Amino acid sequence: MTTPADPPAPAAVDPLVIRFLDFLGPQVTKGGWRPPEDFPEIAFAGRSNVGKSSLLNVLLRRKALARVSNTPGRTRQINFFAVNKQFVLADLPGYGYAKISKTRKAEWRPLIEGYLRSSKRLAGVVLLLDVRHDPSPDDLQMLDFLAEVGAPTIVVATKTDKMGPVVAANRIQEMAEALGLDADQMVSFSSRTGEGRDELATALMDLLQQPDWRPAPATEEVAEGTEEMPIALTPSAAEATAAPSDQ
User: Fold this and answer.
1) How far apart are CA 202 and CA 219, in angstroms?
2) Buried-most residue among 22, 63, 123, 214 (CB within 10 A)?
């Protein structure tokens, strides 16, 4: 008697099927042109050479949406992409590239800070950290700034394929402890193998379902003498291009 074969396991459901993708344009200066805020926005941030462009290509299933470069710190603008007419992805300039001049750094700090403070539809921020390195002072400043602003933040450990799975898991645990997080609050990601793509996509979809995190407008004037916390980062700079570089 022939035993029926077990039915095949159902295919995994893609949490983010890309049906529509459009480059909306860049914002080059604080207060400069930016796309209308018609949809929720998710910003991607990280140090130069953290692998942001490669991650975005994998996440959005495109080979060349974001330009991958061997030269860190090339993007000097915020690039906006409409995804599925559902949300807008904001690719922020990389920060922390030491070879950029102090003048250039001073130009891009207001751009990043201004966007994160003023975007009315910002749903949250994805902060990328290279799993091979401890969080830098710039990374810690960015986390402090996001906490001060109150923006929901997803932390992603990139380049996990550069080490063995056990070593990578231990590194993520160490990084989480340094950041005051639980290891399961961080997403492990490899642009080479695709590990973590669906987990990150699911986290983004969950983020978009959350209520607006920004406090209601104050009814009283801010007390005289109070100041907003500056981001104090060292953003990267380079040529203006329609697509971001690898950061």
Assistant:
1) 37
2) 123
Q: What are phi and psi of 155, to 5 degrees?
A: -100, 125
Per residue in 76-135, pLDDT (tens digit) is 799 999 999 999 999 999 887 555 556 656 667 889 999 999 999 999 999 999 999 999
pLDDT in tens, 149-186: 999 999 999 999 999 999 999 999 999 999 998 888 89
**CATH architecture type of domain 22-208:** 3-Layer(aba) Sandwich (3.40)
pTM of the predicted protein model: 0.81
Q: What is the dihedral of CA 188, 189, 190, 193, to 10 degrees?
A: 90
Going along 159-209, which residue ranges are E strands? 186-188
Q: Rounded CA gap, 161 and 174, in Å? A: 17
Q: Give the other-Cβ count within 10 Å of 144's Cβ.
A: 13
As to burial, measured by CB atoms within 10 angstroms (0-12 exposed, 13-18 middle, 19+ buried), residue 123 is: buried
Residue extents of the structural domains in the chain: 22-208
- d(C-alpha 85, C-alpha 36), whole Å: 13
DSSP assignments along 1-20, one per residue? -PPPPPPPPPPPPPSS----
Distance (Å, whole) CA 122 – CA 214: 9
